[in-house]
Amino acid sequence: MPQTNLRRLCYPQVMTEQPDTIYALSSGRPPVAVAVVRVSGPCACNALEALVGRVPEPRRAMFARVRDRLGGEVIDEGLVLWFPGPKSETGEDMVEFQMHGSRAVLSALFAALARLPGFRPADPGEFTRRAFENGRIDLTKVEGLADLIFADTEAQRRQAVRQLQGLLGQRADNWRQRLVEALALVEAQIDFPDEADVARDLVGPALSAARTLRDEITAVLADERRGERLREGLVVALAGPPNAGKSSVLNRLARRSVAIVSPFAGTTRDVIEIHLDLDGCPVTVLDTAGLRPSDDPVEQEGMRRARERASAADLVLWVVEATSEPGQVTTVGKEEFPRTEKWIIRNKTDLIDAEKNYESSSKTPGGLSFSISAKTGEGFEKLLSALLAWARDNFGSAEPALVTRARQRQALEETLAALARALAEPPNGREDIVAEELRLAARSLGRLTGRVDVEDVLDVIFRDFCIGK
Description:
By secondary structure, this protein is α/β, with parallel strands linked by helices. It folds into three domains: 3-122, Probable tRNA modification gtpase trme, domain 1 (Gyrase A, domain 2, 2-Layer Sandwich); 142-223 and 403-462, Four Helix Bundle (Hemerythrin (Met), subunit A), CATH 1.20.120; 232-395, P-loop containing nucleotide triphosphate hydrolases (Rossmann fold), CATH 3.40.50. It is 43% helix and 18% strand. It has 16 helices and 13 strands. It has helices spanning 3-10, 44-51, 103-114, 126-133, 139-149, 154-164, 167-191, 203-221, 226-232, 246-254, 297-311, 326-335, 380-395, 406-423, 431-449, 455-462; strands at residues 21-25, 32-40, 62-67, 74-83, 94-101, 119-121, 234-239, 272-278, 281-287, 315-321, 342-347, 361-364, 367-371. The strands form two sheets. It has a seven-stranded mixed beta sheet, sandwiched between helices. A six-stranded mixed beta sheet has the order 3-4-5-2-1-6. Strand 12 and strand 13 form a beta hairpin. The longest helix has 25 residues, at 167-191.
């Protein structure tokens, strides 16, 4: 595109009618070898003309000296790229600067960009939000991108990539298209009941299509929430009496010192968290305050938090000293957290006489039981193997989960409810009610992908994005 046309498109007369042009660092925090700064908006080409002096061919990298137009001083040398909209990541005109990633270079480049009319720093997630608003991606892909940014394990990464590639969005669009076709049949029956070229019964085929859709969506929702569990991870709480070695077990699981270990009871007052990657399965382990009678208000608050967090965990590891009486351990294990799965961890086996035999793992009425030494590591491999098997069982089969967020599940449940109401109409029931329910079902699927009425959820989704995405 000639530079005269670029100037006509990009200079200030459009500023009152079009959105701001935004810029941000899109690569790692400096200092880095190479930093990528992205610019997006109606005046993106101004950045090239003002700082480089010319515009490269679309989607072709060009080596250039980047100058501050205030004085003409060279900021750095690097690559620049030009992506005219709408065929860009955001659907708008975009520019990329690939520069040396020092703080000084980036500071000078940002200062030069800030002096251009209509330019401002991007808000968190604003590049992705513009891509969504310009129809480049749907809402399920936006959520997949967010999950990919925050993925801690290989399994979470794979699930996020599948969402980013449209695993759920494409299926939802297909369902919505079929619903619209079914709705069109019912509307034709209502609008043209006496036309000779219109079939007598169009509602029947429409309801048949709705019944098939209901069965498909029901099957997707019958996944035991595997996608949400994988995205959020499982929670394991270490609980038990004081001085049983819970913090030592936590440090052994983390393979580093994250909790203070002391021979004095009551050292742990607040909940400490670590995140584990068990062969791709994300697990958060909580170290909680020891549970015992106490008049100390600080320790009481610690125990209250311990009970609260452990009660909400997926698994409680009840840690006791290996010398504790078996009957007493089982009784306490049943009394604390009765609705949560519990394993008994008999710690400090290194303090038991060498002649005394014990099983490193066994089954008790309250669940699995393990004898370990957090100090020496004895028996720990069996505990880790059991935790890995437990995590795999909880995450279910290797088949990809379509639903990964509560918002997505709610939209599909609303779709099912509308389909159920449509199918509940008697054979000779009111066609307008059937049409309205099918319309509501299609609307719920549209909310799932962001095609209709999702403004109320956008701020919630984008607020956790990083700057530059």
